[in-house]
Amino acid sequence: MALTPRGKALVAGGAVVAVLGGGMAALALSGNAPDPIQQALSGIGVAPAPIEPCPLTGEKRPGEKQPPDRPLLAVKVENTPDAQPLAGLQGADIVYEEVVEGGITRFVLLFHCDEANRIGPVRSIRTTDPEILAPFSDHPLLAFSGGSKGVRNVVEEAGLTTMDESSAANAFARDEGRVAPHNLFTSTKPLWAGGKKLAKDESSPNSPFEYSDDVPTPNKKGRSATVVFSGLATAEWRWQKGHYVRYLDGSPMTLESGGSITADNVVIQVVKTTESDFQDVAGYPSPEVNLIGKGKAWVLRDGKLIVGKWERADRSEFTVFRTKTGEEITLTPGTTFVELAPTGMFDADISFG
Fold it and tell me: Which residues, 6 or more positions from 203, have their beta carbon under 8 angstroms from its beta carbon?
């Protein structure tokens, strides 16, 4: 019996699948197989899956690879003079900055498509963390060091997969060249290895933003932004050479690697803060940050400033940012820094240039 060209292609495709085996065939069809296999499939008319952008950046990976099949990884990083210089921020897809006791801030680094060989100094968790992470997936990974019993209970009850020196000891190491407690560091590779065992079958993260190359309108010049959290913490961003650069005391904030902290998007979200029932070791009350509801917001991208507002119905949903006319504000594909600017217990001073 003579076969049509399509029939021949199907037979050939079946032969390739048989030779490759189920696992390799599935890998090939996913778009992550080596180039020779992809070319072989293409030659017989079997199209691999379209390449998807990374959910946390809206960008496609180098080499036209699919996003990795691994859970969201969040790492708590200190932001004080004693912690400088920091490590790992440039490997994160998204970074949140939250106010903690005394008006200082901490970073929540989110990793999925990219990686970092050294992250830190790693510090303690807060009740804000599960509020940030809940919409991304059922049991995202959260790496940290320390936290009061009450805060730990809140975080664990929220379903987060927690990882610290007790549950994932091989993922953390003390840098003897630094002073404790500002000397604990980690990296993404051992955290993901340990996290996959602790949170089996955890899915890849959902996407928190809409991305587009088109700048939303109306907009105006957005060359700089400054968020003064308190007398002890200021976030300053300046538009330079195609991205926003973080400044500290009038100079670019330099990482341990020697590079600057940069972001393609800077989102400023005004959130209400009140005193919680928890305190730090010095007796300062921890802020309770309310991420549910609505409030003022600004988005900086492509050297432009979009004035808007935010709204979030409940913990399971992502925050949506909209223009004053109600259109959703899209971000430019790339990395994002979210400033949770407080009002209430602390009142941030926000200015633009």
Answer: 71, 137, 138
Domains annotated for the chain, with CATH where assigned, are: 5-43 (no CATH), 52-353 (3.50.90.10)
Q: Give the 3-state DSSP-derived string for 205-220, with helices as H, strands as E and coil as C.
A: CCCCCCECCCCCCCCE
Residue 132 token pair: 């940030």
Q: Cα–Cα distances in Å, from 68 out to 34, 71, 121?
A: 15, 9, 26
Q: What is the pLDDT of residues 222-280, one digit of tens each?
A: 999 999 999 999 999 999 999 999 999 999 999 999 999 999 999 999 999 999 888 77
Cα 313 to Cα 310: distance, rounded to the nearest angstrom: 10
Which helix (H) or strand (E) is 306 found in, with range?
strand 304-312
pLDDT, tens digit (0-9, with 9 covering 90-100), for 123-155: 999 999 999 999 999 999 999 999 888 899 999
**Element (H or E) spanning 18, and its range?**
helix 5-30
